[in-house]
Design goal:
Elements: H1 18-24, H2 33-51, E1 54-58, E2 69-73, H3 80-88, H4 90-93, E3 97-102, H5 108-116, E4 119-122, H6 129-140, E5 144-146, H7 165-176, E6 183-191, E7 201-206, E8 210-211, H8 220-254
Parallel strand pairs: 1-7, 2-5, 2-6, 3-4, 3-5
Antiparallel strand pairs: 6-7, 6-8
Length: about 260
């Protein structure tokens, strides 16, 4: 099993500020039954349908209904984290999502909600062993986990270079628990406006799952690169399909 502090491309650091370490080791991911039910009700039936003019979802048949899954979406807007459960969560697969989020998103009033809706913190620059072990434990329990592989929000219509952490993490879980069956599902968001406002259209495309075990060939670095490259290709294909559909629709309107 590879070292957890090498999962993300951050470089080794021998000394860590004790305050940061204390914050990051406070890893707690859970689903509040009443809060999650209320959120699904309000977001799925009121907020999202009213805010967006049209929500198009393609490929829901590709979502595994059991077993460890990593959803790997592009990240175009903060709305993504509300739309993703709407498109893939309890109402579709019967599953709640666990989100790997930045440590700042788990602070204060916002953090109170995030932690009770499946979110848990990670410092992408210096991830703690405790946090990464918690992530692997979630996969071991057969949870559906969300990791944004681009590492940030990008509001153009491009798929940006993926961070190597997602591939290394998935392979770590699979290699440390042979036969676990981790799958990565590429998901692509596209909005009709870079900054989604009232009446914006949104498209959510879901590709077939990638079986992580197919990439476990014994060399973690090369295996992770191949897995990450194939994930990036799948996301780009989803993005191209959206661009083609948009171009065709525009040409039909002009004619």
């Amino acid at each position: 099993m590879m070292e957890f502090d090498s999962i993300f491309d951050t470089g080794r650091q021998k000394t860590v500020n004790s305050k940061i370490t204390a914050n990051l080791t406070d890893t707690n991911s859970r689903i509040s039954p009443w809060l999650s039910s209320l959120t699904y009700l309000l977001a799925g039936n009121i907020l999202l349908p009213l805010y967006f003019s049209q929500i198009t979802i393609v490929g829901q048949e590709n979502l595994p209904k059991s077993g460890p899954v990593i959803l790997a979406p592009t990240h175009k807007a903060r709305w993504d984290s509300l739309l993703l459960p709407y498109a893939t969560g309890r109402g579709v697969t019967g599953r709640d999502l666990r989100f790997m989020v930045t440590s700042t998103e788990c602070r204060g009033f916002q953090g109170w909600f995030v932690r009770r809706l499946g979110g848990f913190p990670v410092n992408s620059q210096r991830p703690s062993i405790t946090t990464l072990r918690h992530t692997v434990e979630l996969l071991k329990r057969g949870e559906m986990l969300v990791i944004y592989p681009e590492g940030g929000i990008f509001r153009d219509n491009e798929v940006h270079p993926l961070k190597p952490g997602i591939g290394r993490l998935a392979l770590s879980a699979e290699s440390s628990h042979p036969g676990l069956g981790v799958k990565i599902v590429p998901v692509c968001f596209n909005y009709s406006h870079p900054y989604p406002s009232w009446g914006t259209d949104v498209s959510i495309s879901i590709a077939p799952a990638i079986k992580v075990s197919d990439y476990a060939q014994g060399c973690v670095k090369q295996d992770a690169k191949k897995l990450t490259d194939d994930l990036a290709h799948a996301l780009q294909q989803l993005n191209y399909q959206y661009d083609d559909l948009t171009s065709s629709a525009f040409m039909q309107i002009e004619s």
